[in-house]
Amino acid sequence: MDAEVIVVGGGPTGLMLACELRLAGVDVLVVERRGARVSAEARAGGMHARTMEVLDQRGMLEPFLAAGRPMQGAHFSALPLDLSGFATRYPYLLMLLQTKIELLLEERALELGVRLRRPVEVVGLRQDEAGVDVELDGGGWLRGEYVVGCDGGRSRVRKLAGVGFPGTGATLTALLGDVELAEPPAEPIFQERHDHGTIGVLSFEPGWFRVITTEYDRVAGRDEPVTLETLREACVKIAGTDFGMRRPRWLSRFGDAARQAERYRVGRVLLAGDAAHVHFPAGGQGLNLGVQDAVNLGWKLAATVRGWAPEGLLDSYHAERHPVGARVLHNTRAQSALSRPDAQTTALREVVGGLVGVEAVNDLLGGMVTALDVRYPMADGHRGAGDHPLIGVRMPDVDLLPLDGGAPERAFALLRAGRGVLLDLGALDGVHDGWADRVDLVRARCPARTWAIPGVGRVPAPGAVLIRPDGHIAWAARAQGDGDVRAALNAWFGVPAGVLTG
């Protein structure tokens, strides 16, 4: 074997997955077709709250916060959303270009011992019961126990694995340019609708800006060139000005095609990020969706490689993440439609804009765009979970007090090692043996009497919770004797071995 897991694609999804796997001790090789370590291409431009939280869970967030710029709120089709009341330490959008995100993730991956090869392009794939072989464009093959395609919307891995990619085609043409502006808008985030389309101008770094134009009912040909003059003409047509644009760093074009892989797993081949789903970048959800795919998949694939994964654990990746991806495709289609520059849509926007001012609607849309409200289907007794209202939601970053009287500790700090955590807040009776090699037992007190959960509301603080490595709650107890923790441990962390001690 050349590696236990071969990750095809060194973008944010592939690098985050590599970090997760390596944290669990898996030998990982990332192959990337791009030759340059840093590219001018930066499709994504920010991180939402849940992505910052998963980085925080791993102790990786600080460099990203230092490099980025917080911007209050998010938006739904350019209708502003207020995140100030959301139960998260990061109720904002972090403006940070994908190039910098990739650089920081790559640095972390290399620190962890991930191997990276570039430029390498995969042109063939075959799998058997023991592993997967990938053929390289320069000749030769690599073999791994598993292969994960994180190689973008035109994924070669997805095509070679024979996975269908159904969805809807493009209905519009959007142009993107990272340029200097002599006469930029006053607002750091400028978005307007006009008779001929929409225009947005985002300020990322002093002296240059990202300009995005959208023209509806015109789909550009794949080979149609994108030049500074093309972007300038679109700006003048839509907004009546080009803002004095000059010296482009990067020019690109995209549409609103929305497609999703039929399956995220075919035997020993898996898909994540844009290889599994593409959509219009409304609300800035794409990079975040991919990174969160990686965090869901990483620990499950590592458990499978290490041999302790219970039956069906790896298949739960598709079961949990495919509906999340489908919801993003659905809401981005809605946002695209809500931006059309016609009188009927204008009337609809006014109605929806009024509804967004209602707290419940703001919270619903905000939870969706930030992914803070993602709840996996673990309830109804699935995998020994029981029926507690916390089951399936992300663990909130509550303050915890050690029983020995030490300094308070944040809940996210318990997840630094990427292991499961059985957090005893007074409801566990005795020592639960058998999972010490994969689950940490932590005993503490929680000062908060209720926990605020986006999409759920306030829930009485539990007596114990079992937290998966991805930060989602797999089991919870209200009081001593409530629920079968051993069944939940067995269901999520496999056959017991050894002794679990605190």
Q: With helices defined by DSSP (H or I, 4 residues minimum), what is the helix count?
A: 11
Mean pLDDT: 92
Specify the overall morphology. globular
Helix % is: 25-40%
CATH topology label of the largest domain: FAD/NAD(P)-binding domain
Low-pLDDT runs: none
Strand content: 25-35%
What is the count of structural domains?
Answer: 3
The structural class is: alpha+beta
Distance between the termini: 37 Å
Cofactor: FAD
Keywords: FAD, Flavoprotein
Domain FAD-binding: 3-331
Protein name: FAD-dependent oxidoreductase
Q: How does this structure look, described?
A:
This is FAD-dependent oxidoreductase. The chain has helices spanning about 10-25, 50-55, 60-65, 100-110, 155-160, 230-240, 285-305, 315-335, 345-355, 360-370, 485-495; strands at about 5-10, 30, 45, 70, 75, 80, 90-95, 115, 120-125, 130-135, 140-150, 165-170, 170-180, 190-195, 195-205, 210-215, 245-255, 260, 265, 270, 275-280, 400, 410, 420-425, 440-445, 450-455, 455-460, 465, 475. With about 500 residues, the chain is α+β, with helices and mostly antiparallel strands. Strands 1, 2, 8, 9, 10, 11, 19 and 20 form an eight-stranded mixed β-sheet that branches. A hairpin with a 2-residue loop joins strand 5 and strand 6. The relative contact order is 0.13. The model has no long low-confidence stretch (mean pLDDT about 90).
